[in-house]
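Many introductory courses stop at the sequence. We go one step further.
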Amino acid sequence: MNGATPRGHAITALVMNTIAFTVCFAAWMMNGVLVTFLVDAQLFSFSTVEIGWLIGIPVLTGSLTRLPVGLLTDRFGGRVVYTWLMALSAIPMWLMSTADSYAEFMVFSLGFGLTGASFAVGIAYTSIWFDRSRQGTALGIFGAGNAGAAVTSMGAPFLLQWLTEDGSNVEAWRTLPQIYAVSLLVMAIIFWFTTRTRVVADAQTKTMAERLRPLKELRVWRFGLYYFFVFGGFVALAQWLIPYYVNVYTMNIASAGLMATIFILPSGVIRALGGWLSDFAGARTVMYWVLGVSAICCFLLTVPRMDIQAPGQGVMAPRSGTITSVTSKEVRLGDQSFLLRQIPENSVTLLNDPNAMVWPAFEFWQEPVVVVGQEVERKELVARGVTHIYFQANFLIFTALVFVLGIAMGIGKAAVYKHIPDYFPEDVGVVGGIVGVLGGLGGFVCPILFGYMLQGTGIWTTCWIFFLAVTVVCLVWMHLVVRRMLHDRDPELLRHLERHTAEGDQDAEVAGAL
């Protein structure tokens, strides 16, 4: 804790910061549930691309305003900025209840998207109450406010069902944004009366150029790429998983919201553990594990649900002649008979009861392509082979993989922000702001990109292919940086490590030195 600040003031600031962030994050994620509900209820006929834009628009506002809001927090303090941010966001949130066109949804979504900038306020306001040795844990606890997304994904669908009387009064959806608006306003009032003003010591003396100087360093943008995935990916999936479950697994929106919560809630809450692990084991080690586990999960998730028929092994005539008999079981060429492989008897049962399936199912049969009396040449096809591949992409396994991915993202969010006070102890607000901007842009870009990829390919799993590519880039970039740092510090140690690694020697002394 900084200076002689009473411990109770710091704890109060952290608790209220986290609660306010939870409320803001819940409001920020509203469109994922609301827009899906409106389209599912056929009240509005938005395309998949338009849905992606409406999900991403609030994230854009929250992302682009993080840096200036972070600077304002350094200048005026988190108490003032946080209170005004929530109060102002409540206005367009209330107006959202009056929207009747796509343009109005866009404009009001841009407005209440300001709630996403609450992260920049909270990072700066939390950091100033704690010393460096405890910032990782404190920021991890604050970041657990991401669980506000779970409040929306789990609670909003049931609230919509109750408000609309199970769809019999669909227009009652307009009460939902009003509830969120009142929540923001009430939280703003509570925050003002329970917190204290505290600003950065040199906030009055630094020029704007001095504040922005750290942004020239490449590592800031590398941290931003990490955060693009662990935070931006989390924000995108927190909203995208609901239409994903609805379309791929034909769930209703309430069930989809519950399944999405399995990803969202642990990912938000476990961020506190990620802060502690980063303090204990080091942020870089944690990031290696986060990116490695994420890459494996995304790779496994790339396999789509499929029902494919492809050419298989057929039957060719060994000589020229006349077809004398054709049945589903046999083809005769002159006096020579060719038995055909039949469709498996359990094929229909297999397709009607797919939920127990874990691995893809393969079936193979042959069908005649000739008729009686037809003259065929040698090597001409008389029966074509058909290979049937069916993969259910079992939703329980899918959910388990998404759950693990969410855990990794939650830990990674804290690990990224542990880097910042280590490398930029005097510029946490600015560097944290720009990293938050890049992470928030991930939450904006990804749903829109997913919409275009889905529209272009018709395959829902393209989102996992994209995330797989991002994690691989992050891993390679981080590994190259670590190698360069090790080479600059001790070239001989690097050569020694590489030589023994190639020989399969587990050199404990070298590992300990690293």
